[in-house]
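Section 4.2 – Deliverable D4.2 (structural model, holo form)

The reporting period included a commitment to supply a predicted holo structure for the target in complex with 3-methyl-2-oxobutanoic acid. Inputs used:
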Amino acid sequence: MSVNTEIKRITTNTLQEMKLRGEKISMLTSYDYSMARIVDEAGIDAILVGDSASNVMAGHETTLPITLDQMIYHASSVVRAAKRSLVVVDLPFGSYQGNSKEALNSAIRIMKESGAHAVKLEGGEEIRESIERIITAGIPVMGHLGLTPQSIYKFGTYTVRAKEEAEAEKLKKDVLVLQEAGCFAVVLEKIPAKLAAAATESVKIPTIGIGAGAACDGQVLVVHDMLGLTKGFRPRFLRQYLNLYEEISGAVKGYVADVKSSDFPSEKEQY
Ligand code: KIV
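Output (structure tokens):
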């Protein structure tokens, strides 16, 4: 008797079925092969190759500088590692805001050159045409509302969005627009939990929250933040599972001391 060891891939449909049966969706970012392999094998449902790579991988202050070519490089490394999870890739700033043709071309490049399974775009009504055009080409799209970091210079700060009535009303409309446009899911970032709950209730597609409370259908975090690699970044919404900054720093200090004292390499560590 042969044992079927094939791993069943999570798809955009799987996420929608999870919402239907009330099973929460887990999502984390990854940007490279080694981290994505751990995250995938540990059982995450979806991996986001976020443009937060601009911050945590490249050290930029914002997500704006990262390019389409750089996103494709990160995404193809992640795709090589992800055997089970759905891989979603951010369209970076400047690769889709111009017009819907540009948006489609950028999405096609990501899918063709990285092998990813879906793309994510920031915005609502104002990018509806682009979303529809990408979906018409057969590419699944995840939306992103609330704090959309590519608009940081319009917002001015990274504080909670949609606390005022007008912005909350626009977000409620936008989540419906994204559903109608054909998005398979939507990220809600840093908005009041009550508003996220109302938005989640209003749509059939899953909402994935980051700083948007417990009512969302799933949660996403930047993997460097939840592992404690980003020193000094402790927003209220973040649960930090490890303090890898300290762990790695301790290991490096130990290595430096061992080399300096000629303790490393030992007899057993040489040929
Ligand atoms: O780029 C990113 O990591 C994101 C998440 C914060 C949702 O968009």
